[in-house]
Amino acid sequence: MTMWNSDIPAYKADTDPLYQTIPFFYGPSPKKMISDLARDGFKIAVIVDPGIKADSSYDAFRAGLAGGDFLRYPDGRLFIGRVWPGECAFPDFSRPETRRWWGEHFVALTSVGVRGFWNDMNEPSVFDTPTSTVDLSVVHYDNGLMTPHAKNHNVYGLLMTEGTYEGVRTLVPGERPFVLTRASYAGGQRYSAAWTGDNTSSWEHLAMAVPMLLNLSSSLPCSGPGRRSEKCVSQQLLQYSDQAPIDPLTLTFYPADSSGSIYYEDDGHTFRYQSGSCWKRAIEQRRAAHSVDVTLGVVEGSYRPPDRSLVLEIRNVAKMPQKVQIAGRELQRIRTAGIQNLREGWTYDPASKVVRVKMRETSEERTVSVLR
């Protein structure tokens, strides 16, 4: 477990003896530390790799042997590969029983308050083989077909995240699991977000990351690159997605003859969205001869976000509008610097040709008109 905020006393928690490089194994309980951090608004995520230390004194290894959960060669020998804990056995995630066994072991993490699970090294990476992964002849269950790793390699990470997601969902009912993975496959978005592995803050890696993420996001929309360099410019660090409420919520428009989209939001934690607890509205934009109109449809769903402002940012407006209206009511024009402190009004920036309209967000239908 690593913490990336120097305001937390344990800056590098992965050097603390409470947490070892062996999955699901601890020294003294970290429950109090995690509870103390939770009171300060932090949610803890931990790395869990697939390699299970091949140690007869380790209960997860003993249980995996007894359940037939580890990968083996065609002659029945256990496949052993070296990764961070040393010599390790690797779960056969193509077995449904193994995915259940894997998921059940997350009770060691959820019971002490861990709320995020980072599945790393799950291509799987192996340090001491020519291919840097599991030997290609090693056999997977594969729905009873007993096929080699050469066939199953690309889905290994996906099936690991399925086991992680389903296990945590059972252990923490009613709360959506947060799972992050380094390896996955088409369909993996059902179980996890993805990161592309360690990189550095260099122009070369930035150039690689852009096409990589554009391609990856076609099947894994929640994905991003890693970062290992200490030499970079950073912004405010957010430990989790809802640490800072979105206020104002800014919607950006590039005027066209007509366009539309759907805005969707829910609590981000529970499964209540499945029974209608969401904030969903249609948004339409139309450009006429003398105006640009944005219609915010009536909100569907029972979820209500915290009270906040809404800013409509309308770009490519060639000249100062004559006026701006909400449902026929004219808004006050204000200086650009003053919009942050007012509940309602509009500004125009001639340099960027941007109109910004600020209002309180409500669930009713409203039309904002920028009259040129």
Note down, in words, how this protein is organized.
By secondary structure, the chain is of the alpha/beta class. It has helices at residues 31-39, 59-66, 96-104, 107-110, 149-152, 156-171, 203-216, and strands at residues 45-48, 52-53, 81-83, 86-89, 116-119, 139-140, 147-148, 178-181, 193-195, 223-224, 249-253, 258-265, 279-287, 291-296, 309-314, 323-326, 329-330, 345-349, 354-360, 366-371. It has 2 domains: 13-224, Glycosidases (TIM Barrel); 249-371, Immunoglobulin-like. The chain contains 7 helices and 20 strands. Helix 3 packs across helix 6.
Based on the model shown, name its key terms:
372 residues, alpha/beta, TIM Barrel, Immunoglobulin-like, 2 domains, 6-stranded antiparallel sheet, 17% helix, elongated, disordered N terminus
Topology:
Blueprint (H helix, E strand, L loop, with lengths): L30 H9 L5 E4 L3 E2 L5 H8 L14 E3 L2 E4 L6 H9 L2 H4 L5 E4 L19 E2 L6 E2 H4 L3 H16 L6 E4 L11 E3 L7 H14 L6 E2 L24 E5 L4 E8 L13 E9 L3 E6 L12 E6 L8 E4 L2 E2 L14 E5 L4 E7 L5 E6 L1
Helix pairs in contact: 3-6
Summarize the structure.
Helix content is about 15%, strand content about 25%. It has about 375 residues and is α/β, with parallel strands linked by helices. It is elongated.
